[in-house]
Amino acid sequence: MKKHILIVSQYFYPEQFRINDIALEWLKRGYKVTVLTGIPNYPQGKFFKGYGLLKKRKETWNGVDIIRIPLFARGKTSVGMVLNYFSFVISGFFWKCFTKVKADCVFTFEVSPMTQALIGVWYSKKHKIPNYIYVQDLWPENVEIVTGIHSKAIIGPISKMVNYIYKNCDKIFATSPSFVKEIQKRTPGEENKVLYWPQYAEEFYEPTDVKSSLIPQDGALNITFTGNIGTAQGLEILPKTARLLKEQNIKVRFNIVGDGRNKDNLITCIKENEVEEYFNLVGWQHSTNIPHILAASDAAFLSFANNSLYSMTIPAKLQSYMACGIPILASVCGETERIIKEALCGFVSAIGKSAELAEIVIQFSNLTDNEKETMKENAIQYYNLHFNKSELHIQMENELMVFV
Asked: 124: closest CA among 107, 138, 143?
């Protein structure tokens, strides 16, 4: 009988994060899996229907045991987000003190907030078991970007917390080679415990002939963004780009599939640039619908806000796009730019440069069908070579074998 893995993740099913698939894969491989998580509220900012402080605090999903500890819903304000972050870790502290769950190792899935990883540290110390973390967001860098706070009085303690977490992890997995290098700066003498483990796309992300009716088919070039609409995504570049394309009478539609804290700002920017007809705001969709939405699109889009941190980031949607075999247009730099160019699966413009983005949109629109088809094939081939789910899980299981 294989061992019991405790996953600590503030976000879990029915919220859509890759940790859902990781948990199911471990279950298939024979491990017992328990997930400590919060009450689902991402990205809408309010508790999902059927969940609450007194509802569905424990459930089993496809064999995975889920424990939901209390937290504040994140809402739409910065205050709400801070309360959301701190309430989860405070609840986790008390859960650690009184829980009867006995696991053989802890695995923290770290997207912001990093504070959630403290729960894994506390639990592993109490039970003297291995502690692992999978880093998706670098802290304190992410805090500075999101909040705009650079005061040493605030960032200093957060930096010390991060060092404490890394010091008390037996293995640290990171989503990009650049993340590995940054984390190794905080683990002197223990650099070898920091490993690159890229994200993969769930198996339902694949090319399909079934096209979603959410994407109009009227001759316009359909460029589709999917995912969270936050400040980090830098989507304000799209209305500015649309205005330039409108001036040249180029028929393009930007389909925005998702929700998030910055959606209202994006809508305002669209109206200010008077390009409403260039946008199709689809709203939140279940991840299983995304392949059909992409199948109805000509290209996928991703972008970042202008910050050096994002040059080190490989966003999860990149793997999803590539697995679906769709050409990619991007306003990015660094790791993501490298992958798109290595794969020969799309075009890249500089972050925040709307004129450059307009140019690559026009360049893409002028490609022949055969050239676009080659981009699709290149995306799939690169994905299968570098982000193969089965091979990545074999690598991960070899790392976890230390506690078996």
From this structure: 107
Q: How far apart are CA 10 and CA 115, in angstroms?
A: 10
Q: Which letter, b or e, does each residue of 275-290 get, where b requires 16 or more Cβ atoms within 10 Å of its Cβ?
A: beebbbbbebbebebb
d(CA 67, CA 323): 32
Token pair for residue 31? 């491990």
Distance CA 305, CA 324 (A): 25
In order of 163, 167, 169, 179, 199, the CA distances from 311 in angstroms are 22, 25, 25, 10, 17
Residue 283 region by backbone torsions, left for phi larger than 0, else alpha for psi between -120 and 50, else beta: left
Beta strands in 88-198 (DSSP E): 105-110, 131-135, 171-174, 194-196
Instruction: Encode the chain (404 residues) as per-residue pLDDT tens digits.
Output: 679 999 999 999 999 999 999 999 999 999 999 999 999 999 888 999 999 998 899 999 999 999 999 999 999 888 898 899 999 999 999 999 999 999 999 999 999 999 999 999 999 999 999 999 999 999 998 888 777 778 888 899 999 999 999 999 999 999 999 999 999 999 999 999 999 999 999 999 999 999 999 999 999 999 999 999 988 899 999 999 999 999 999 999 999 999 988 999 999 999 999 999 999 999 999 999 999 999 999 999 999 998 888 899 999 999 999 999 999 999 999 999 999 999 999 999 999 999 999 999 999 999 999 999 999 999 999 999 999 999 999 999 888 765 65
How much is the pTM?
0.88
